[in-house]
Amino acid sequence: MSSNPPNPNGLSDAASYSLEAARRILAGKKLFVMTGAGISTDSGIPDYRGEGRVARHPMTYDVFMGS
């Protein structure tokens, strides 16, 4: 049974993978990221539907076009 050699930079496999992904992203010319609504709530940004939310009154298309 063989195992992978120890990581030379002392990072865990997950950290090493993340570091390599970051290097590839930063080396590129373009980056496109598409996420869903959950990304902000997982980051601690409150949603507008949850408990204790602030009332939200977005401008409608008709109001926008009339201004």
Q: Notable features of this structure?
A:
67 residues, mainly alpha, 0% strand, elongated
Question: Could you please describe the fold and organization of this structure?
Answer:
With 67 residues, the chain is mainly α. The protein has three helices and no strands. The protein has a domain of 38 residues. The longest helix is centred in the N-terminal third of the chain and has 15 residues. The protein is elongated and about 60 Å long.
Low-pLDDT stretches:
none
Q: Strand-residue fraction?
A: under 5%
State the secondary-structure class. mainly alpha
How far do the termini sit from each other?
A: 72 Å
According to DSSP, the number of beta strands is 0
**Gyration radius over CA:** 22 Å
Q: What is the global morphology?
A: elongated
Q: What is the chain-wise order of helices and strands?
A: HHH
Topology at a glance:
Blueprint: H1 13-27, H2 38-42, H3 61-66
Give a short overview.
With 67 residues, the chain is mainly alpha-helical.
